[in-house]
Every structure is written in structure tokens, then in C-alpha cells.
Amino acid sequence: MSSTTAAPARSKRGKRKLDQAVEQEEKATAGGPAHPGDEAAPPTAPAPRLPHKFRQLDKPANLEAMLKEEKAGCVTAVTFGRDFGIRDGHLEQLALAAGPQLTELRLGSSDTGDGVYLTVDIIVRRCKNLDVLQLASCTGISNKAFAAICSGLPKLRELHVTGHDKSTGARPGALKGKALDPLIQGALPNLRRLYITDQGVGYDAVQRLIKKRGKTLQVQSGETDDDDSFAYGMVMSMQGRGYGDGLYGNMRW
User: Fold this and answer.
1) Secondary structure (3-state) at 62
2) CA-CA distances (angstroms) from residue 18 to 13, 168, 207?
3) If residue 88 lies in a helix (H) or strand (E), which one and from where to where?
4) What is the pTM of this model?
5) Alpha carbon distances (Å) from 102 to 16, 80, 162, 167
6) At 161, which helix (H) or strand (E)?
7) Count of beta carbons in the 10 Å neighbourhood of residue 105
8) Which tens digits make up the pLDDT trace of 28-75?
């Protein structure tokens, strides 16, 4: 008698334990407490959105809109359009918002002349992590400013400091031959590509640089000619010349 009445009791206790275990497992799966007194597990956070790293800024309104965004500080590469009309004030706004994060900065245009009014002080002071710096049509950069780039932006691997074919390197304020002395003496050891066209550095200074660092550094210098009109092409043909004849260096395409 005792054995037949005890068996159903053990079966009920086992069923209750099984129900409790299933209930606890369901609560744990749903994020609720697994045991009485336990705190509920916090909800799983959504995966973070990847930052928008590159921006093309074609006009000042684009810069203003970017600066108002929370993710402005996540931008790592910026290109200013050829007709932006860039001034030092624009660079200061960008540098204050995203300078430490910037690894690439491209600005100016040899076609429109945009960039002729720029200096580099704010770039050197606020954009220390630049890997690529393109300063096109920046005819106002002096030897002193170029030296500041060489000493203040040690991570550079690619550097463009170019004028434009409408105002060649002979103009006052353009870079002269001694501008390359810091590079000849070993500044910017990570630099691999240097574009320094339509400036006044001269052939001899470029050759000294290539002789010293040509194994690791590719250099393009000389004078460009962006006039691609049919008439000008005919004149060049009559003179036995071609586009790019004024360029020299050890640049390998």
C-alpha cells in the first residue's frame, strides 16, 4: 500500500520541478530574472553605426551642415571642391571640429585657382595625424611654411604643394630651392610621394632630393600646362612638344 501511494507523490514533485526549470529557462531567454530576486538582464544594445569617414565639400554650406552633425568628429577624410572658395577660416572651423581625427585633407584647384589665399598654420597645429595632404594652387606658401609642414606633420606619406599653370613658380612668395632642405636632411621619413609642381624649387634642388632619398621617395616637379584647347595643342605640336614635357622627377606611374 505504501509503495503504491508514494509513487504518484514523487511523480508530482518531479513534474513541478520540471515546470519550474522550464519557466526559469523561458524567463532567462526572454531577458527576465532566472531566479526570484535576480535582476533582469539589460536589453542588448544595438550594434553601433559605422562613422561616416569621408566628406566631399563643394560649397561652404556643405561645411556648415557637416559641423552641425554629431558625427562631425568622426570624419577622417575631407576634400574641398574646386569652386569652394576656401579660406583659412574654413580650415579653422574644420580643424576645431575634426582636426585630430583627420588623416586625409585635399583642397585647392589648379583649374580655378582656389587655394591661393591659404596659409598652413591651422593645419600644422591641429591636424597632426594627417597621412595625405594635398594643397593645390597654394602659391602663397613660403619656405618657412613648408618647413613647418615638414616638422609638424610627421606621419605624412603623400604631400602635394603645387601652384597652377596660370601663375608659375617664379611669382613672389612661391617655394624656392632651399624649401626642400628639410626633406634632404631627413624630415618626414615616412613620405613616399611628393608633388611640388608650378613652384620655384628648381631642377637642381629636386635632383639633390632624389639622389638622397630616391629609393623610397617619388618626386614630381616642374611646370604643368592645363590648357587642353585644340589651338594650344596645335601650337605645341608645331613646336615638337607634348603635354607634360615640363615635368621631371622620378615619379613612377
Assistant:
1) helix
2) 9, 88, 85
3) helix 88-98
4) 0.72
5) 63, 14, 21, 30
6) strand 158-161
7) 23
8) 544 455 455 545 545 554 444 444 589 999 999 999 999 988 777 789
